[in-house]
Structures are given as structure tokens and as C-alpha cells.
Amino acid sequence: MTDKTQNDELTLKAYYQLVKTAQDLENRYGFTVYMIGKTGMRTGEIAHFHPEWFNVESNVINVPKSQDDWQPKRGKGRMISISSDTADTIDWYLNTLDDTYGCSEESIHSHVDVVSEKAGIDSISPHQIRSVYYNELI
Q1: Which residues contact 125 (CB under 8 A, 6 or more apart)?
Q2: What is the DSSP letter of 11?
Q3: What is the pTM of this model?
Q4: Distance from the CA of 13 to the CA of which of 21, 103, 130, 137 falls in 20 to 30 A?
Q5: Domain ranges (residues) in the chain
Q6: What's the pLDDT at 97?
Q7: How far is residue 128's CA from residue 135's CA, in Å, rounded to a whole number?
Q8: What is the phi/psi pair of residue 6, to 5°?
């Protein structure tokens, strides 16, 4: 297992393998990693995600300024634009899986560990996945 650089950054090749493995899993763990990898959402946003944030027709996820007792980082909502393929996959997950949202941040790290192991990648963090998404793909 490897596919990280000397300073523990996830390589682009490993990122693509991770996202493919996540999508192939078609389960809650796959959904979590897919969402991080294809939207750049933060762990707190994934943990508090609600399907009504997602709009498949306009290919966006609208993270609210607050929801219940939760606020996103910096207390600001944001709109995340996604590709139509990503929107279709998220829509499939939401229509196929039961309770695909609302988990702890600790669970998110566990989901990433399981998927990265299945992808043959050394242990990584959700932040490393987001970093590749924002630095290499946007």
C-alpha cells in the first residue's frame, strides 16, 4: 500500500482510485467518501448533510448558514456546484440507500479508512481528499 507523496499528500492517481472504489462500493461508506471526493465538502458538512441541501436539477449542494444546533465553518453557508455526473450519482445514492446522511465526524474518518484500505491506499484523512479536490481539480 502507498500512493502518497513524501509529505503524506494523496496523489492524483490515488485520489481517482479512491473515488472509483467509493463509487463501486455502493454503500454508506462509499457515499461518504464519494461526497468528500467529488464535492469537497468538509467533515462537519457531511456529518450534518440533509438531502434537501441537494438539487439534482441545478447540480448544486446548498450548505445552509445553520441547521438545528449546527453551523458550518466560519458560520457561513455556501453553494457547491457539481457536475451532472456527480449529481446523478448523489441522486442515485440518496434514492437507493437508507439513511445515507447524518453521521458523526468520527464515523466519517472510519468510512475513509475502510474505503482507502479497499482501494489499496495507506491511511488518509478526509482533509487530504478535499485537498486534492481543491488543489488539483478545481
Answers
A1: 109, 112
A2: P
A3: 0.89
A4: 103
A5: 12-47+81-136
A6: 82
A7: 10
A8: -55, -35
